[in-house]
Automatic annotation (TrEMBL):
Belongs to the encapsulin family. Family 1 subfamily. Keywords: Encapsulin nanocompartment. InterPro entries: ENCAP, Encapsulin_nc. This is Type 1 encapsulin shell protein. It comes from Solirubrobacter pauli. It is found in: Encapsulin nanocompartment. GO terms for cellular component: encapsulin nanocompartment.
Length: 269
């Protein structure tokens, strides 16, 4: 038995397999950060800190001794609770295809959004600096005209190239911006989405809930590091006659090693 306590839940192995598959299906579209950063792990629930490869001196001791403390970045645990109807779970195991798993879907959306915000915009309480807030380049103001995005994204890519940051590049877009790009065509009927992909040297355009506006990120590797302890998993809390109380949980750290490898795009002031 591990800390998720799944063996204590009134759910069969087949039921857990169905829930795990549903969670993967609902989480994958929204986990934008993982599509543009280096992901390592999972390293296990008991993995507690990321080695930063640095030290900080301690006060000198007696007899002329010197000492230093290794610096680490602690992993954070993130959890979203939800409940499912026992009657719906029973029908799931009978083979029903139309099970109401809306609470699981809502939990997945909340978890993906929170993870994206931590990676792109930081989490001060956890000691994480995000990609957008770490950018050393001046932010590029977006126009209200989606057709102008080609110019803005090209400017961001040129900024990265000028600073020696090679591609390909990814464009992470807030949901509103993503919808506008997908629905837009330039003069002559050429899809804006396809034109942006060419500017990004073939890199992806990512739907990124939790992101403010847009960020262009180099995919060359080694610049943005996500370290997973326990990857996203469903755990069991308790149950009563009507419901089973579950949660989605993960542990992770995030750090930016090359702030110059991204360029933020912001709404016009």
């Amino acid at each position: 038995m591990n800390h998720l306590l799944r063996e204590r839940a009134p759910i069969t192995d087949e039921g857990w397999a169905e829930l795990d598959e549903e969670a993967r299906t609902r989480l994958e579209p929204g986990l934008a950060a993982r599509k543009v950063v280096d992901f390592s792990g999972p390293l296990g629930w008991d993995y507690s800190a990321t080695n930063l490869g640095r030290i900080e001196p301690l006060p000198d001791g007696a007899d002329g001794l010197t000492s230093a403390r290794r610096r680490v970045l602690p992993l954070v645990e993130m959890r979203v609770d939800f409940a499912l109807s026992r009657a719906e779970l029973a029908d799931l195991e009978r083979g029903a295809e139309d099970i109401d798993l809306e609470p699981l879907e809502q939990a997945a959306r909340r978890m993906a959004r929170a993870e994206n915000r931590a990676v792109f915009h930081g989490w001060a309480a956890a000691g994480f600096k995000g990609i957008a807030e770490s950018c050393t380049h001046d932010a590029i103001a977006l126009s209200g005209d989606f057709n102008a995005y080609t110019r803005h994204v090209a400017e961001a890519v040129e900024t990265l190239l000028r600073n020696g940051i090679k591609g390909p590049y990814a464009l992470a877009l807030a949901p509103e911006q993503y919808t506008g790009v997908v629905q837009s065509t330039e003069h002559g009927g050429y899809l804006l989405f396809d034109h942006l992909r060419k500017i990004l040297q073939g890199g992806p355009i990512v739907w990124a809930p939790g992101v403010d506006s847009a960020v262009v990120v180099s995919l060359r590797g080694g610049d943005f590091l996500f370290e997973s302890g326990q990857d996203l998993s469903i755990g069991y809390s308790h149950h009563d006659a009507q419901s089973v109380y579950l949660y989605l949980e993960e542990s992770f750290s995030f750090r930016v090693t090359t702030p110059e490898a991204a360029c933020s795009l912001v709404p016009p002031s």
